[in-house]
Amino acid sequence: MKHAEETSLALWAGGELGPLDRWLVGRHLTRCAACRGEVEAFGGARVEAASLNALPEIRWDRLGPEMKANIRLGLSAGECVGPRTPLEQQRPLVTLRSVVAWASVAAVLVAGIWIQDPGPARGSREMSGMTGVVLEATPTGIELSEGGQRLILMHPRGSQGTLSFGAQGVMRAGYVDADSGHVTIHHVYAQ
Hints:
This protein is α+β, with helices and mostly antiparallel strands. The protein folds into 2 domains: 6-81, no CATH class; 131-189, no CATH class. Helices cover 46% and strands 20% of the residues. It has 6 helices and 6 strands; from the N terminus they run ααααααββββββ. The chain has a 3-stranded antiparallel beta sheet, with no helix packed on it. The chain has a 3-stranded antiparallel beta sheet with strand order 4-5-6, with no helix packed on it. Strand 2 (141-146) and strand 3 (149-154) form a beta hairpin. Helix 1 (6-14) packs across helix 3. The termini are far apart. The relative contact order is 0.06. Residues 122-127 have low confidence and may be disordered.
């Protein structure tokens, strides 16, 4: 005959079993004298613990439920943590998600470099097929050309400049000479 678990017998003695377990343990206790003796021992321990409640420094009536709650909390936390998985069962470092993420980062970097690339140098208008009045910013300054003639407004070497362009063929450049601190501003209108 299979005996009831000790925890079930202790809960039976305290009247704390659920309906189905209470019925199952009760059926077993009608046929098993050893388990009935265990229940009587648990009942005696409960009576003795209740008599200790008279001590003023220990609140046994509050301590029991608090201990039960802590035990249940500990058991629940243990189930959440669970056993550690062996190394071979851990997720691999390279997954489809990580490959897609790295490919996206690479695409953004390539796009950034491509956007920053100034493209081919625009030195010769004859090769590019430009005709008419052309207003252009070059590394040396602002260049206005028509046909075979050019006007170049050069900025001093080592100077820092800013360029602005307008929709009506207007270009403005401001340069600060690094040595003297003088400011040069060019306004060029192409019509």
